[in-house]
Amino acid sequence: MLAEDERRAAFCPVECGRCGAGVLAAKFSPQHTTVQWSAEAVRACSEFSAAVSLGRPSALVEGCGSLRDSIDAAVLAGRLEVSPPLEVSPPLERAPPLEEAPP
Fold first, then answer.
1. Which one, of 41, 40, 36, 34, lies nearest residue 16 by Cα?
2. Which distant-in-sequence residues (6+ apart) come within 8 Å of 38 by Cβ?
3. pTM of the model
4. Cys-Cys with 16: which of 31, 44, 58, 67 at CB 3.0–4.6 Å?
């Protein structure tokens, strides 16, 4: 059985300040960002287009620095919230049952 996803994703539309590509982004920490790209956004992105024009498949492009800057600006402006994972308590450890002493 799969564990329940414990993140509270607050996806928000973000537009790249360089090329205008629009994506949905969520921040789980200052370092962890999730971006949902549409095919239209990939086509509009200047950095993806440059890589594709050089023969590199868009799936192998790690990301877009300009969009990363736009996401950081959205966080600073309060348009994108950092939503850390929920606090989840570790499972309680149970002691093995005590063996009864022989009579």
1. 41
2. 22, 23
3. 0.71
4. 67
